[in-house]
Task: inverse folding
């Protein structure tokens, strides 16, 4: 029998399943909506697999920092509605709780045993896809550690404890007061969330980005002597550092000083030197292209298959 696009849409609206899955289900059940729903439900993980090409740019960033070690994990879903789902939140929190053993490697994390189960993290994500009905994926993870000192964490746009849309880790190397390190570390983490620096300092900026900045400066000042161009480039890179490099940026808590100066000021209360060794900032879905939903085009594409 012929399966109409309207019938497919009805089934899709009821189940959240993919267009082609709905078409197959209706074909297998001779157009009976209720039987088609049961057909899709019985497919379980087969249904989940069919969603893997759908863009997942929402979800949650999970974060955990204990003493001298901290981890970040981004788990994506298709809609922000899922981020409010308690089951999804618990899954992200559980994955984050074991992310330290992966040391920043997604493949290792996916292969790890999911807490309280014999299945892997990857298998648990697939199970959640089948349960909730949206594509999901563990996109990335990072870990920071210091020999002496503290790794502090901050979550912005918090959805639940240790879960939100922006997560930041800051690593401070010091033998000083833990309380002081915790306070200045959290303030700097808040700064990182707000200002999104490119790197810790100018020396940490990728060379290709430095080369691109210098090329723009040289192009703007064509015709000037080489020694003048070098001085212009040097000055421009200092400005670039103040705008984009964490230690050189004006501190959001007190813009009269740089982040480096704020750290220096904190050393007196800490009772020891403080060195910031690294930071990581995850903004949910950053870098993922989010296409506009075009149901009409999707129907037209399905009709051609």
Result:
């Amino acid at each position: 029998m012929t399966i109409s696009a309207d019938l497919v849409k009805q089934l899709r609206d009821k189940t959240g399943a993919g267009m082609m899955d709905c078409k197959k289900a209706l074909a297998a059940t001779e157009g009976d909506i209720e039987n088609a729903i049961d057909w899709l439900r019985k497919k379980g993980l087969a249904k989940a697999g069919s969603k893997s090409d759908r863009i997942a740019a929402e979800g949650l960033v999970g974060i955990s920092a204990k003493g001298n070690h901290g981890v970040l994990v981004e788990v994506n879903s298709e809609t922000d509605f899922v981020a409010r789902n308690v089951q999804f939140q618990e899954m992200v929190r559980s994955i984050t709780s074991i992310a330290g053993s992966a040391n920043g490697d997604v493949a290792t994390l996916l292969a790890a045993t999911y807490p309280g189960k014999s299945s892997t993290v990857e298998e648990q994500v697939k199970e959640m896809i089948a349960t909730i009905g949206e594509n999901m994926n563990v996109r990335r993870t990072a870990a920071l550690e210091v020999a002496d000192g503290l790794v502090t964490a901050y979550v912005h746009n918090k959805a639940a404890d240790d879960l939100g849309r922006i997560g930041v880790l800051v690593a401070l190397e010091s033998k000083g007061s833990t309380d002081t390190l915790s306070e200045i570390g959290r303030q700097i983490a808040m700064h990182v969330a707000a200002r999104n620096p490119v790197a810790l300092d100018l020396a940490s900026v990728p060379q290709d980005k430095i080369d691109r900045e210098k090329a723009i400066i040289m192009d703007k000042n064509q015709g000037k002597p080489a020694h003048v161009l070098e001085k212009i480039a040097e000055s421009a890179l200092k400005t670039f550092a103040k705008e984009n490099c964490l230690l050189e940026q004006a501190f959001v808590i007190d813009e009269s000083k740089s982040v480096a100066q704020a750290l220096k000021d904190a050393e007196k209360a800490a009772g020891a030197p403080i060195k910031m060794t690294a930071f990581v900032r995850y903004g949910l879905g950053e870098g993922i292209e989010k296409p506009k939903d075009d149901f009409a085009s999707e129907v037209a594409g399905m009709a051609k298959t």
The domain at 58-167 is CATH 3.30.479.20 (Tetrahydropterin Synthase; Chain A). Strands lie at 58-66, 69-77, 136-145, 149-160, 163-173, 250-251, 254-258, 275-283. The chain has a mean pLDDT of 88. Residues 226-244 form the longest helix (19 residues).
